[in-house]
């Protein structure tokens, strides 16, 4: 965003003869939709890390006001801008011991078994590695943690679409499984980037693996070279995208002029020029199909040996807002410390 | 832990025209904004020159005020107590590790509604907690091929045979040390690691675990091999590296201190045996030096801004690269690890391979309590000068702080008090404080000054009392306070040194003399020599600092 704003200064966006000025404020995804929902904050555009939060806001605001504050299906005013899937970053030698060349299916079940094994790595003949250590962010404060528990839940349920409220609330075994899984994680932080930095700064002693965005992994992989060993990126067999939706708020404070300006701004973000910068420099997958990610110098080519793929596994279907809210509330009640 | 900058963003569109506001330039003089920083002393050598450089550059906050950093080194656990009591009100707190953060928040929240430390902070430098051991000793235990851990060290501490069991009777008993867990981070993590070793776990330490009788007796056994405690890891390391293997076989410290010592040895500055870092096989803890701008009522916005500017400076590549020279691993992962972090300097950057889980705050506090119950008791003879020159504020402050010192010791500790002037008067026998703490404090409060200074005779008297009545399984110490030259002894200095000198083999467990040169006329050099001969520590004090000195001596016990 910093780079986009800088570029806007050089190349102003003009709508109906007026220059558009964009004021940006950073905020955690959950804090963002909650403060817009209760009216504390009245922005013109909202851009959480993924459509999970748009689903939640749409559902919660429809229930609260009748008319939703965002309308995801309205593709004119609600667009994905950058894509990056959730990945697991794992020390190569340890991944080899845990699941050989490839986890294939049931990656979360395998991780859960290893995490909750009281013998830890001893079970795999490596007592010197201690207990198995996995890190993901706090789902109430960070989208990547939320995406992680959605993927865990889908895999446990044996499907990739159609998660229901009952799947969560009426399955005691699932609840127990998730509680044990999360109970084996020492702490939940708020920043995805910190997990990637930590796995590199502290080496394998602190984390065997972390769940982060592909773009976060790309941003830091260079630092991992020649340090504690080789880090490998794994794609869960069913994945989920952090898709950075930009949605214009459906409320009276967004005047027709602002709506038009907002739409023009979102179009600018999806322009080939900005999309290419986001891909080459920051490792995001473009939404603009004119940009190819396998071009020379692309991070997806540079880090192919670290497990980065051009093609990614199929995405799960995003659960509806009320299902997401149920999952999050379950986590808050039973797991949050 | 800063929020990822561009991933989560929210936008507002405005179509307003922004007018440049032309405020007055102002004619403010250059005021100072002072940032007090309390920090773990292990990073002193890296930090202090950087602070000097930063202050010299006269960096400014936006309002034009010049930033000045004032830094105070302090044990991490002690600093929690002093910040909570608001005896210290720093802007920045940088303890040795973030393990202490939940403890600080738990204490703070007893009287405040918000956390003292938010979870958004960065780390300055990293260093794993290691067991530093003389290389020949480590090799005798199978290093570097065999994996050694907390359990092995604990077993060795407990064993009657000591080094004899490994074919080295000449090394005597296994002498182990760590700092005081109520003052210093490395001491705290040492006892947490011992608790894990005692219940054979690496995580999920429970209340039941720490209340079990097995753990109590295990911890007691391990603690019995400790030569003494102390409040600063840096001092502990210095003492080990100065006095050699007869003083300590191994001690818990940080990897960077091993690198620093090996750098000195390789350059010829130290003539000790090589020392190596043992990364315990069960896992260890990281010291990660968080940089915490306190969320406290005494921190204002300008100080916060200034503290952030200093933080950015410390995290700059150049300063981070310098940290490697002091044996730290930089917190910035973009900086490659290299010389002197290598096997030539006793360390292995591929270690540690795993960590022990950081327990919840209530479990940590439970382990500290357990330690207090099982720690090695001390036998101490206190020798106090009551000659005529102690007249006035000197005698009153000395009386008062000695009374407080007696208050700091445990019921199991044994104390004897000797006053000297022209006469040497012992007011009691060496006996547990449980019986007569109040009686001793009462008698100390009533002592008055007068007469000459029979310093050497009094010290020898105390030393011989300890030889005769002290228990070799306790920490044995003599604490001497004197304000002047010896005037009346039949003994001379040379004879005294000959009588109290320790044999090399067991210098770690020998009787230690701590001396306090009190006031300007005290003979500092002689007192220095007496304490150094025994492996104790000399102090220089005055009526204003005497309580702190007694309190610091207490941390050795």
Describe the structure.
The complex is a heterodimer of chains A (337) and B (557). Chain A is an alpha+beta fold and 337 residues long. Chain A has two domains: 144 residues, Periplasmic binding protein-like II (D-Maltodextrin-Binding Protein, domain 2, 3-Layer(aba) Sandwich); 182 residues, D-Maltodextrin-Binding Protein, domain 2 (3-Layer(aba) Sandwich). Chain A contains 14 helices and twelve strands. Chain A is globular. Chain B is an alpha/beta fold and 557 residues long. Chain B has three domains: 138 residues, Periplasmic binding protein-like II (D-Maltodextrin-Binding Protein, domain 2); 191 residues, D-Maltodextrin-Binding Protein, domain 2 (3-Layer(aba) Sandwich), CATH 3.40.190.10; 178 residues, von Willebrand factor, type A domain (Rossmann fold), CATH 3.40.50. Chain B contains 19 helices and 19 strands. In chain B, strands 13, 14, 15, 16, 17, 18 and 19 form a seven-stranded mixed sheet that branches. In chain B, helix 18 links the parallel strand 18 and strand 19. In chain B, helix 8 crosses helix 13 and helix 16 packs parallel to helix 17. The radius of gyration of chain B is 26 Å and the shape is globular. The interface between A and B is large, with 66 and 48 residues. Strand 3 of chain A pairs antiparallel with strand 1 of chain B.
Question: What's the layout of helices and strands?
Answer:
The complex is a heterodimer of chains A (337) and B (557).
Chain A lengths: L1 H9 L3 E2 L2 E2 L1 E6 L2 H9 L7 E3 L3 H15 L12 E3 L1 E10 H8 L7 H10 L17 E2 L7 H15 L7 H5 L2 H12 L8 H10 L7 E5 H11 L6 E4 L6 E2 L2 E4 L7 H14 L2 H11 L2 E2 L12 H4 L18 H14 L3
Chain B lengths: L8 E6 L17 E8 L4 H13 L9 E8 L2 H9 L7 E3 L6 H8 L13 E2 L1 E10 H6 L9 H9 L17 E2 L7 H15 L7 H5 L1 H11 L9 H11 L6 E5 H13 L7 E4 L7 E2 L2 E4 L7 H15 L1 H9 L3 E2 L30 H14 L3 E8 L7 H16 L5 E7 L3 E3 L4 E2 H13 L9 H15 L5 E8 L10 H8 L11 E7 L5 H11 L3 E4 L4 H10 L2
Parallel strand pairs in B: 2-3, 2-4, 7-8, 13-14, 13-17, 17-18, 18-19
Antiparallel strand pairs in B: 4-11, 5-11, 6-8, 6-9, 6-10, 6-12, 14-15, 14-16
Helix pairs in contact in B: 6-8, 6-13, 8-13, 14-15, 14-19, 16-17, 17-18
């Amino acid at each position: 965003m910093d780079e986009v704003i800088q570029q806007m200064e050089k190349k102003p966006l003009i709508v109906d003869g007026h220059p558009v000025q964009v004021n940006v404020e950073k905020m955690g995804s959950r804090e963002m939709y909650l403060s817009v929902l209760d009216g504390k904050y009245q922005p013109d555009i909202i851009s959480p890390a993924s459509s999970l939060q748009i689903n939640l806001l749409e559902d919660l605001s429809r229930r609260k006001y009748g008319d939703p504050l965002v309308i995801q299906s309205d593709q004119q005013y609600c667009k994905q801008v950058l894509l990056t899937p959730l990945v697991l970053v794992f020390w190569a030698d340890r991944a080899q011991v845990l699941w050989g060349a490839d986890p294939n299916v049931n990656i979360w079940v395998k991780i859960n078994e290893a995490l909750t094994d009281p013998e830890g790595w001893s079970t795999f003949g490596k007592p010197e590695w201690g207990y198995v250590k996995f890190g993901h962010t706090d789902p109430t404060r960070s989208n990547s943690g939320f995406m992680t528990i959605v993927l865990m839940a889908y895999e446990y349920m044996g499907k990739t679409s159609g998660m229901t409220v009952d799947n969560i609330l009426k399955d005691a075994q699932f609840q127990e499984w998730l509680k044990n899984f999360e109970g084996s994680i020492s702490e939940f932080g708020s920043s995805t980037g910190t997990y990637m930095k930590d796995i590199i700064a502290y080496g394998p002693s602190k984390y065997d693996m972390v769940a982060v965005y592909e773009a976060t992994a790309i941003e830091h992989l260079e630092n991992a070279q020649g340090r504690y060993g080789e880090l490998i990126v794994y794609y869960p067999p069913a994945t989920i995208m952090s898709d950075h939706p930009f949605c214009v708020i459906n409320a009276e404070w967004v005047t027709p002029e602002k709506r038009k300006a907002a739409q023009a701004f979102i179009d600018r973000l999806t322009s080939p020029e900005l999309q290419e910068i986001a891909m080459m420099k920051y490792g995001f997958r473009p939404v603009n199909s004119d940009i190819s990610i396998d071009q020379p110098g692309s991070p997806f080519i540079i880090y192919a040996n670290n497990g980065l793929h051009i093609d990614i596994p199929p995405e799960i279907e995003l659960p509806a807002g009320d299902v997401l809210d149920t999952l999050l509330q379950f986590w808050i009640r039973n797991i949050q410390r | 832990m800063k929020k990822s900058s561009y991933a989560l963003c929210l936008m507002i569109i405005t179509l307003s025209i922004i007018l440049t506001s032309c405020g007055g330039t102002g004619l403010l003089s250059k005021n100072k904004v002072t940032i007090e920083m309390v920090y773990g002393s292990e990073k002193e050598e890296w930090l202090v020159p950087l602070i000097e450089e930063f202050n010299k550059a006269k960096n400014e906050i936006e309002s034009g005020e010049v930033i000045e950093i004032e830094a105070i080194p302090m044990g991490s656990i002690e600093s929690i107590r002093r910040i909570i009591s608001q005896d210290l009100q720093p802007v920045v707190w940088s303890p040795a590790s973030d393990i202490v953060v939940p403890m600080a928040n738990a204490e703070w929240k007893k009287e405040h509604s918000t956390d003292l430390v938010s979870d958004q902070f960065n780390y300055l430098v990293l260093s794993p907690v290691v067991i530093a051991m003389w290389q020949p000793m480590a090799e005798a235990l199978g290093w570097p091929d065999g994996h050694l851990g907390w359990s092995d060290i604990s077993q060795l501490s407990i064993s009657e045979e000591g080094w004899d069991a490994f074919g080295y009777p000449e090394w005597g008993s296994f002498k182990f040390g760590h700092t005081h867990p109520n003052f210093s981070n490395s001491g705290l993590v040492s006892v947490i690691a011992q608790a894990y070793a005692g219940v054979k776990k690496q995580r999920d330490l429970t209340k039941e675990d720490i209340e079990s009788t097995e753990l109590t007796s295990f911890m007691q056994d391990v603690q019995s091999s400790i030569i003494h405690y102390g409040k600063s890891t840096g001092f502990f390391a210095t003492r080990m590296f100065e006095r050699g293997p007869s003083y300590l076989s191994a001690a818990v410290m940080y990897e960077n201190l091993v690198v620093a010592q090996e750098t000195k040895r390789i350059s010829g500055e130290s003539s000790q045996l090589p020392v190596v870092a043992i990364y315990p096989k069960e896992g260890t803890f990281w010291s990660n030096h968080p940089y915490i701008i306190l969320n406290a009522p005494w921190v204002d916005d300008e100080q916060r801004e200034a503290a952030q500017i200093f933080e950015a400076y410390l995290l700059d590549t150049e300063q981070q690269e310098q940290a490697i020279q002091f044996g730290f691993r930089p917190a910035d992962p973009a900086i490659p690890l290299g010389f002197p972090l290598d096997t030539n300097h006793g360390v292995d950057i591929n270690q540690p391979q795993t960590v022990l889980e950081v327990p919840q705050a209530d479990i940590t506090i439970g382990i500290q309590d357990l330690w207090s119950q099982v720690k090695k008791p001390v036998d101490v003879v206190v020798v106090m000068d009551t000659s005529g020159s102690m007249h006035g504020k000197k005698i009153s402050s000395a009386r008062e702080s000695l009374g407080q010192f007696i208050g700091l010791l445990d019921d199991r500790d044994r104390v004897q008090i000797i006053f000297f002037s022209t006469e040497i008067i012992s007011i009691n026998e060496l006996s547990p404080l449980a019986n007569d703490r109040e009686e001793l404090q009462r008698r100390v409060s009533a002592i008055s000054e007068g007469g000459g200074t029979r310093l050497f005779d009094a010290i020898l008297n105390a030393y011989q009392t300890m030889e005769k009545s002290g228990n070799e399984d306790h920490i044995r110490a003599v604490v001497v306070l004197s304000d002047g030259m010896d005037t009346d002894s039949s003994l001379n200095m040379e004879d005294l040194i000959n009588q109290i000198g320790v044999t090399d083999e067991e210098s770690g467990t020998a009787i230690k003399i701590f001396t306090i040169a009190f006031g300007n006329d005290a003979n500092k050099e002689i007192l220095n020599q007496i304490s150094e001969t025994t492996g104790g520590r000399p102090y220089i004090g005055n009526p204003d600092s005497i309580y702190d000195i007694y309190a610091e001596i207490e941390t050795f016990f």
